[in-house]
Amino acid sequence: MNYRLLYLISILIFFSACQSPQEEYVCTPCNLECDQLSFAKAGDCPHCNMKLIKKSELESLQNLVLNQVKIENGKGAFLIDGGYHQGRQIIVHY
Q: Which domain of life does this protein belong to (predicted)?
């Protein structure tokens, strides 16, 4: 009897461990209270109607560093880092 109970418990633990984790979706940052909410599926935020994105995507967006570029009146060009492609540069004309 104890072996059956142990077998049943081990099967339940196995199946619960095999379930894939649910992805969380969050509101595209809009500086409203809904930025703190999370949702179970993609779509639009019911509060501000912004697109919901995966929480993991938001975390990677928050790690981006903006280039500090001073643009003056007139025209010219400047180089910026290549974003996701490290070691590359992009020339921007204005």
A: Bacteria
**Unique residue bearing structure tokens 């993991």:** 56
CB count within 10 Å of CB 32 equals: 13
Residue 4 backbone phi and psi in degrees, to 5 = -65, -45
> Which tokens is 43 given?
């779509």
Looking at this protein, which amino acid is placed at residue 88? R
Query: Cβ of 26: how many Cβ atoms within 10 Å?
Result: 21
Structure tokens at 88: 């590359």
- Write down the pTM of the prediction: 0.45
Amino acid letter, 9: I
State mean pLDDT over 55-67. 69
- How many Å apart are CA 53 and CA 44, to the nearest integer? 9
